[in-house]
Design goal:
Chain A: Keywords: Membrane, Transmembrane, Transmembrane helix. The structure holds 2 protein chains of 2 kinds. By secondary structure, chain A is mostly helical. Chain A has 5 helices and no strands. In chain A, helix 1 runs antiparallel to helix 3 and helix 1 runs parallel beside helix 5. Chain B folds into 2 domains: about 300 residues, no CATH class; about 80 residues, no CATH class. Chain B has 18 helices and 8 strands.
């Protein structure tokens, strides 16, 4: 398996963390008037944000810059999709 | 959070909006066509596939085949020889020389262009003439070339197109930076998209959220795009004007490596062995090959390589043609490795997203799509906020026309290609006429519709309808391969592209814009929800 496909796979754990961050984001919960779940604390959000970038560390350390860019771009696009999905779910 | 004064925010909002109003539609055109051009080669293969996919961009045996072809062309055209894959996966071998031009005019390349099947290396056709004539002779790349010409030059002649797209690149940079500064709560709001709010607020959120998530890449794509446009239109001519009395050809020659002039005849070394050696030396895959002074003692072979696995920078290695001996690794710029050269070398992979094959292309396509969405939603937002003012209705309709009419017109170009193409013969200006006809028809629909919103829906369905027809037209009108034959011939992109067009068509045909209920429209944001920019906009 090429390192570039591995980069796409490494975006999956980051996507899950993004989903968690977005799902429990205090401002989103307040603005979309979602009251059935609690928001993450500031420390929890900081910890998850650090964890979000962990999959990219080996790519950077080993100098796989193309794979890093693929991971980076994929995470940003997944982030956009997560926000759209959660917004659609919330509006139902 | 970025702290800026209300006055500064107001100014930035005006700059952001003005750059969008005056250049937004053209910018959207460049971004959308650039997004599609990420899959330029795959579109080329889909539109006019060879009978069998090649094993590599330069398949084994190409060196020996080039020698038999070289024996069949005018020896004057052995001055410079290039072999490279065309957009549709076939191979092009161009044997040519530079013909001295009259005073004040640029030198012209003249030679013989030969089209080859990538698997069997069988000759399909050949034509002799100037570079412009011979490349226009073949229609197999016409669809990809049209898309690229629209993206790079907006179909404008000469340097005008490069100037225009370069300026649009700067406009995108300005919009990215001003948008970043205006939106102070970028991180805080990055997960907040209010779909249940009134239409204008929902449109604003859709624009801001897409812009926030694609911001770093919008900046990179705008910068690299402006670099490419102005590099060709201004940079090189300026360098030539300062150091070479305006002679661009000489400027380019000086940047080329020298092996020492020796015009005595000498047979060319085994090109296939050179390709194997280049692959072993760099860890990349040969993408194309050029031979200067074929058949002379000072022959020089340049092999351009893909980046090695995990790397970003493509490379080029040089071999002495007469002996096949390794000469040097060619830096990205000039004759010596430099930081500036590496930076210049990064522009191409960062702009085209082709540095790691399909995975990087998928990501770059998605990023391009997000940027196009940001440009379009920005225009929609700007016009919707002023739709009660008489003059702005026309801009709203123009936004609907280009926003949704451009994809419809591009789909019509693809349909026209399938109806007009005959083998690999040229199409002249036919695709341009189809495109202009598509723009005219969609303009009539947009400005004749009941409202801009109705025009959006109509054009989206038109785009979906044409896209749904494309696989059928490819198969029946252009006599392209069916899915079974394509997959068994290694042409999986034919199947994948058909599938993408069918899914895209269904998405367009089934799309329903979410409507806010009257109660939701009346919901106002709390003051805390609003950014300074919104408060300024509200005050205005």
């Amino acid at each position: 398996m090429s390192i570039d496909v591995v980069a796409l796979l490494l975006a999956i754990p980051s996507a899950l963390i993004l989903w968690l961050l977005a799902d429990r984001d205090p401002k989103r919960l307040r603005v979309q008037r979602i009251r059935d779940r609690g928001a993450l604390s500031a420390n929890q959000r900081k910890l998850l944000t650090v964890a979000l970038f962990l999959p990219a560390l080996p790519l950077m350390a080993l100098g796989y810059w193309s794979a890093f860019l693929i991971w980076f771009g994929a995470v940003f696009m997944v982030g956009w999709c997560v926000v759209l999905s959660l917004s659609t779910l919330a509006s139902r | 959070m970025i702290n800026v004064s209300t006055r500064m925010t107001k100014s930035l909002l005006a700059i952001h909006g003005c750059s969008a109003v005056f250049l937004g539609l053209l910018l959207y055109t460049v971004i959308l066509t650039g997004t599609l051009a990420v899959f330029e080669h795959e579109l080329g293969v889909w539109a006019n596939p060879p009978s069998q996919a090649g094993e590599a961009p330069l398949p084994s045996g190409i060196g020996a085949r080039m020698k038999t072809l070289a024996a069949s062309v005018d020896p004057a055209y052995l001055d410079e020889v290039g072999v490279f894959p065309s957009s549709d996966g076939r191979l092009m071998a161009f044997f040519h020389t530079h013909v001295e031009a009259e005073q004040g005019r640029e030198a012209v390349e003249e030679g013989t262009l030969i089209l080859l099947e990538p698997a069997s290396l069988e000759e399909l056709d050949r034509v002799t003439g100037s570079a412009d004539e011979v490349f226009r002779h073949f229609g197999n790349n016409a669809l990809s070339n049209f898309l690229l010409d629209l993206h790079i030059r907006l179909l404008l002649p000469g340097q005008w197109g490069l100037w225009a797209t370069g300026l649009l690149g700067f406009a995108m940079l300005v919009a990215s930076v001003s948008g970043f500064v205006i939106h102070r709560h970028l991180i805080k709001d990055i997960f907040t998209l209010r779909r249940r709010r009134a239409d204008v607020l929902a449109a604003r959120d859709a624009h801001v959220i897409a812009g926030s998530w694609s911001l770093p890449f919008a900046f990179v794509l705008a910068f690299t795009g402006a670099f490419f446009s102005f590099g060709g239109a201004i940079g090189l001519p300026m360098l030539a004007a300062i150091a070479f009395g305006g002679d661009v050809e000489t400027a380019l020659e000086v940047l080329q490596p020298e092996v020492g002039e020796d015009s005595s005849p000498a047979p060319l070394a085994d090109l296939d062995l050179i390709l194997v050696s280049a692959a072993e030396r760099t860890g990349g895959e040969p993408q194309n090959m050029f031979v200067n002074h074929w058949g002379r003692a000072d022959a020089l072979v340049t092999v351009r390589m893909s980046a090695e696995e995990g790397g970003l920078l493509p490379g080029a290695v040089l071999y002495k043609g007469a002996t096949g001996e390794f000469f040097k690794t060619q830096p990205n710029l000039g004759n010596e490795p430099s930081f500036g050269g590496d930076l210049a070398g990064l522009m191409s992979p960062l702009h085209f997203g082709n540095f790691a094959g399909t995975p990087s292309k998928i990501v770059w396509f998605a990023l391009g799509f997000a940027s196009a969405y940001v440009a379009l939603t920005g225009m929609v937002l700007w016009t919707r906020r002023r739709e009660s003012e008489p003059g702005w209705d026309k801009l709203a309709r123009a936004t609907a026309w280009l926003g949704y009419g451009l994809p419809a017109s591009l789909a019509a170009v693809a349909a026209g290609y399938f109806l007009l193409i005959d083998g690999v013969s040229g199409l002249g200006y036919s695709l341009l006429y189809v495109f202009l006809g598509g723009l005219l028809a969609t303009a009539l629909l947009s400005f004749g519709a009941r409202s801009a919103e109705a025009a959006n829906r109509l054009l989206l369905r038109l785009t979906g309808g044409i896209m749904l027809l494309l696989p059928l037209l490819r198969w029946l009108a252009a006599e392209g391969p069916g899915w079974g034959m394509a997959l068994s011939s290694g042409l999986s992109w034919v199947f994948v592209m058909d599938l993408c067009f069918i899914l895209g068509a269904l998405a367009c045909l089934r799309y329903k814009r979410p409507h806010s209920s009257p109660e939701e429209i009346n919901i106002e944001r709390t003051d805390e929800d609003k950014t300074v920019a919104e408060r300024v906009a509200d005050a205005a």
